């Protein structure tokens, strides 16, 4: 039987290596001096977060002194939820270019919160709207990154 602690340690180590690879790849990105924000900034931030999160997960799991629970594999309903989530992520990525980052983020977050969280549709739509608005404000308006805008041209 697979145990949760060993899976968390392995997952943490994997995330730490992935963070290092991301940081290395980001260091190879070149940009001009005329840019407001260098193109490697976002990959540096994401890589650093992944690296630190992986290290923390591995250390906390290694130091865990409680009962080591057995990993429970998902039943049929859990497997369906995993596949629906993966398909919705694929649809999100496919819709990003035609609809733009804010609108596709709104749709993806709204659906995910409603489907996975079993919250009311109004609550899911409000959080989806907030996510889409924040993605536009942060990535497109403030950082001026070149994400697809879709129908919301400035």
Report the C-alpha radius of gyration, rounded: 19 Å
Strand content: under 5%
The percent range for helix content is over 70%
Helix/sheet category? mainly alpha
Main pleated sheet: none
Task: Summarize the model shown.
The chain is mainly α and 154 residues long.
Give a description of the structure.
- With 154 residues, the chain is an all-alpha fold.
- The protein folds into two domains: 1-73; 75-154, no CATH class.
- Helix content is 71%, strand content 0%.
- It has five helices and no strands.
- It has helices spanning 4-27, 41-63, 76-99, 101-117, 121-142.
- Helix 3 (76-99) runs antiparallel to helix 4 and helix 4 packs antiparallel against helix 5.
- The radius of gyration is 19 Å and the shape is flat.
- The N and C termini lie far apart (55 Å).
- The model has no long low-confidence stretch (mean pLDDT 88).
Give the tags.
mainly alpha; single chain; about 150 residues
What is the fold's blueprint, element by element?
Elements: H1 4-27, H2 41-63, H3 76-99, H4 101-117, H5 121-142
Helix pairs in contact: 1-2, 3-4, 4-5
């Amino acid at each position: 039987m697979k145990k949760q602690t060993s899976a968390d340690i392995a997952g943490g180590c994997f995330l730490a290596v992935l963070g290092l690879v991301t940081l290395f790849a980001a260091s190879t990105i070149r940009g001009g001096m005329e840019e407001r924000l260098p193109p490697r900034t976002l990959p540096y931030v994401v890589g650093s977060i992944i690296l630190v999160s992986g290290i923390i997960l591995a250390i906390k799991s290694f130091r865990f002194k409680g009962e080591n629970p057995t990993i429970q594999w998902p039943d049929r309903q859990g497997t369906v939820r995993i596949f629906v989530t993966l398909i919705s992520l694929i649809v999100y990525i496919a819709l990003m270019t035609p609809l733009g980052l804010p609108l596709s983020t709104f749709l993806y977050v709204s659906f995910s919160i409603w489907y996975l969280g079993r919250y009311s549709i109004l609550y899911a739509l409000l959080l989806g709207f907030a996510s889409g608005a924040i993605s536009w404000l942060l990535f497109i308006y403030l950082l001026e990154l070149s994400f697809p805008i879709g129908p919301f041209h400035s």
